[in-house]
Amino acid sequence: MTFRARFVLAACAWTLLTAGLVVALPLAVAHRLPDPVASHWGTSGRPDDSMSLTAVLVIALVLFAVLTTPCLGAAIHGVGLRRRPVRACVVAGLAWAGTFVPGVMALTVWANLDVTTWRAARPLTWQPFALFAATFGVGALAYLLGRRGPDEPVRPSDSRRRVLTPKPGERVTWVSAATNGILLGLGWAFLTVGVVLALVIVVLRPSPWLWLAAGSFALTGIAGLAISTIRVQVTEAGLGIAFGPLRWPVRRVGLTELDDAWVERRMPHEVGGWGYRGLPGSATIMIRGGDCLVIRYRDGGTLGISVDDAERGAGLINGLLAARTRTS
What we know:
The chain is of the alpha+beta class. It folds into 3 domains: 3-146, no CATH class; 159-176 and 234-327, PH-domain like (Roll); 181-226. The chain has 8 helices and 12 strands. It has helices at residues 3-28, 53-77, 84-112, 127-146, 181-204, 210-226, 268-271, 310-327; strands at 37-41, 47-51, 159-160, 174-179, 229-235, 238-243, 250-254, 258-266, 275-279, 282-286, 290-297, 302-306. Strands 3-8-11-12-10-9 form a 6-stranded mixed β-sheet. A 4-stranded antiparallel β-sheet has the order 4-5-6-7. Strands 1-2 form a two-stranded antiparallel sheet. The chain is globular, with a radius of gyration of 25 Å. It starts with a helix and ends with a helix. Residues 154-158 have low confidence and may be disordered.
């Protein structure tokens, strides 16, 4: 059995086992739980809301599916498993979800066990914080374990590599950008709706729940704007990636962190759509389909950036890396 097959089998087995635990734990003691059960605790630690056990189970399973499906998809897809950073993220994500959701269910069952009504459920004060600490500890350990195994630096056959070597003493800079008009328009539209809803709430003071809608629209709009426009700059210091119309935030990658660069043709349907797609260690910033500047980090991870004139940018990175190697 290949490494990939063993990895996928272990990931699926872990997911099924932990999902079964989420269901089996409350059902095993259902006769000792009130109906409905306490499902929410306030800042005082006392229960302040309830729902049926069935609803609790459905919500827990939906949350579990949302957390694990991207990880399983990355594992089954298989291409990203060639890279240790991707495998580590998949293992960490499955381990975190497989301890967090059953942990929340265990706390819920413990708090409701052998009480006559949900209002008499045990308070939760320090226990949720302990659960968070434990699950993140498990996730960190799983990340380290996930980096074990083979690492195959494979470059696609349709890639193009170029080297532009600067002359001695010459200061060079390459700047390019790309914009997705649809994402830009949607981003501004969502942000506008969020601002309008906020103004309505301030003036008319309707239901406070509208703040949730206003915040959701505003955050979605900001996220859309951030991934609608990109500006990439290459200098002797390294690579700078500026997001959004305001060119903020900016991600900087030092030249010492890079190992190679090339051009590769990628389309949105090949990477899962527009925006930031993939997992850390094997991701693509997809603004528009076509040529992408692909960089490889020294730790083996890769990042693809859909930007104009990508071949010249990749060539300059390779030239700067070669010049640094000669002078070091």
